[in-house]
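Record minuted for completeness.

…
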Amino acid sequence: MAVEANVPGVGEGDALPLEELALDGAADGIEDGDAGEVLRVLADDALPGQAAAARGAHGGADRARRARVAGELGDLAVGGDAAARDAAHHRVELAVEAQGGIAGPRHRGTLRQEAVQIQVRYFAVFRERLGREEEAIELPDGADVRAALEALGARHDVVRALRGRFQTAVNQEMVKEDARLADGDELVLIPPVAGGDDRHARLLDEPLSLDRVVAAVASLDTGGVVTFTGLVRRSSGGRAVERLEYEAYREMAEKVLRGLCDEIEQDFAGSKVAVEHRVGKLAVGDIAVVIAAAAPHRAAAFDACRALIDRLKERVPIWKKEIGPDGAEWVGLGP
């Protein structure tokens, strides 16, 4: 919606009353007119009670005068013509120019939402390591929580290092990373709460992090940490491989992964394990799975790590498809 006003002797503060008056009169434009008369009409309409009394006293003369002034307000691309409004951008451009020796600014403003600003709040480990409780960040219009976390990870090492180990809330509601953000939203990074389940066993459709799984198991009681990183290789069973595709029954797979971690920690005293597994399309050289196992002594750490990868392949509903120049094959089933 574009609004152009050019009325001599009218300052910027009068622009809104002029626009309202023009709309009330269904005017199609604003043209130069008698500034004194325009302001007198605005003054009459400024106080509803007085204006009502004046209308009662003057009747049709005032209505005719207001209609004539509204008709003199030229070039307002609004009025009753909906097609003249710029609905795509919701733009309002207002120009007020001084004429006749009266000083006044010419101002053009455009209201167009091209970015959103959100407020990020930090608690517990984030607050301590960052040395702050909150900050504001600006993101492109349409950005989601994932984009905000990527931006914060680029700024702060602790956010990047703990990615995957905390939850997120927007405006006091727990959300996933694909939740859209709006201007003025409050985003909170929520570490595991006291007494909560901080089990690190995840399926991800983004690059995995060995650092995250190590951080999830290390403690002051740890005597050794053993890790396993599974990579996509370029051949399998004598066949060339160009890429892999992992598919999972996600809800069940994550539940089984957590159960396996509990099971391993019971079987190997003092151990603590964590795992991340990819889903989706992976190229040769990409990381498909990472595991970390910690224990007071190295033997238990080695055993726990091996047991977790072996049981994962046997029991977790994740399926692997190998694609190469000779075709595609679901592993275990053939072409």
Notes: Residues 115-190 form a domain with the Ubiquitin-like (UB roll) fold (CATH 3.10.20.30). The radius of gyration is 33 Å. The chain has a mean pLDDT of 76.
